[in-house]
Specification:
This protein is an alpha+beta fold. It is about 50% helix and about 15% strand.
Amino acid sequence: MSDDKSVSIVNLGKLSKPADTLIKKVSSAVGGVFEPWQIKRVAKANAEADLIKARSEIEITDLHRRAMHRFVEEEASRQENMERITEKALPQLSEGSDPSTMDDDWVTNFFDKSRIVSDEEMQDLWSSVLAGEANVPGTYSKRTVNFLGDLDKKDAELFQALCSFGWIIGNFTPLVFSPQDNVYNDRGLNFNTLTHLDSIGLIQFNSLSGFRRTGLPKTFTVWYCQQPIALTMEKESENQLPIGNILLTKVGEELATVCKAPGVDGFVDYVKEKWKQYLPDANKTEQDGAADADKPRG
């Protein structure tokens, strides 16, 4: 056995059926991903064969040797990255998932893009995408995977900060009403950074008129960090609710599902102020005021 020190998840002990299936699926798609010693063995064997061939043609120089050594070390590093990402994905698999149904081309493309990722936090992001796709194949498009491959860590952190303002209004919707407000600026979000997120394709940013959710019923509930807020609209149907200056793109929607962003203290009260006319208490106050106005005066 090689003295390779990278951690192989085949040594993690007894695995659940979905985890075992994912390992087999990934190994099949990318070729023995969980045998780090094998890639070195094959690479070294190929390098030795090349050396023998080269000796019969040209004199082997230090440059040739360094190039072959670099190739072996780079492949070993990429192997370790792929293993760590998959290892991090295993605990996120749902009990009833069937990773065997994942598309082979998707898996191959995923590891082609993620194998150079060595940053721990970015590996966490990649592992969540892998687990999400294994749980529900088709959740993440190749386009999103390719986008993630080009995403800088700083941009990922900025997008995560944006997701900390996300509400559930039918679907996940970050609310940015006034980019100049401190609640956003304190977390690195402002006109310039939102424009940047727009330019790279994660959001649509409209600083003028903003966006609205349409077709809403008379009453419904929205959520922020599992805290429900009941809203009451003016009409019985086809109501509109202002949702601020941004919308997530399709890529943004898919990546938002893997952003583990904590809530922001005081943001519920901030949003309530923006939506105060839709809060039940506000409507009750308006109705009481109208009733008082209709009362006969002595």
